[in-house]
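Structural prep section.
Before we set up the soaks we want a predicted structure of the protein with adenosine-5'-diphosphate in place, mainly to decide which crystallisation condition to try first. Input record follows.
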Amino acid sequence: QPLIVMHQVHKIYDLGTARVHALRGISVEISQGEFVAVRGPSGSGKSTFMNILGCLDHPSQGSYCLAGYQVSRLPAKQLARARNRLIGFVFQGFNLLNRANALRNVELPMIYAGLSRQQRELRARQALQLVGLGDRLDHKPAQLSGGQQQRVAIARALVNSPQLLLADEPTGNLDSRTSVEIMAILQALHRQGLTIVLVTHEPDIAAHASRRIVFRDGHLIRDEPVPDPRDAQ
Ligand code: ADP
Ligand code: ADP
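Run finished without errors. Recording the tokens verbatim:
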């Protein structure tokens, strides 16, 4: 069974005076281990789609099944627990706690998961080593470069061993050389079998994925494999 099964999902934002039909019947399946790039013009529904994938928002109509859970039927408390256990998030703006050092930032999701202080610290150290920041545990976000901050955010996203990594414009605030480093980390995670869904405006970034879906006006208008550049010659 695919990790993600969305069937005829609609999202309507009711603003009182107006209704915005942000998603208009999205059906999509994503299997374990896929690396999906999400593209489309501004306002086409990408963020709404990611919010539903991330269990941050419910569809107005249709069903969403994640790892066998019918998300739309889970009560709020169980939904929060499933989200913390199953999904890691990475954002354009890094979303780190500015007053906490790298180690404490990475420990955060494990506090919610109820791990002991010792376990948290051990796993946070390991996660930071994995993204090449083993020597920056004590640094606060302001003392790290943008690329290093994003690596802390990736370590934080992975520390509960999620089944799904959601990345919303993760390279949007980074220069192109640093973007390549971040994409190399995501590609390594993909090779290890992690399922990744990534929103990006940049074709060069989308080219690292294995599949591309394109939104327009709340519809999914394209869904195709990304050609492997090694096959291009
Ligand atoms: P392809 O490379 O297959 O032709 P496109 O470049 O047309 O794909 O991009 C796919 C989708 O992404 C389109 O809906 C396009 O409007 C949108 N898109 C491309 N570049 C940008 C951008 N810089 N900002 C916002 N949307 C973009
Ligand atoms: P994208 O991420 O592709 O830019 P969005 O999913 O953010 O697209 O937006 C899709 C449509 O839904 C847009 O018309 C946007 O204005 C609207 N929208 C998004 N979020 C909200 C919200 N919280 N309340 C009302 N309308 C929203």
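Observations: The chain is about 35% helix and 25% strand.
Flagged for discussion at group meeting.
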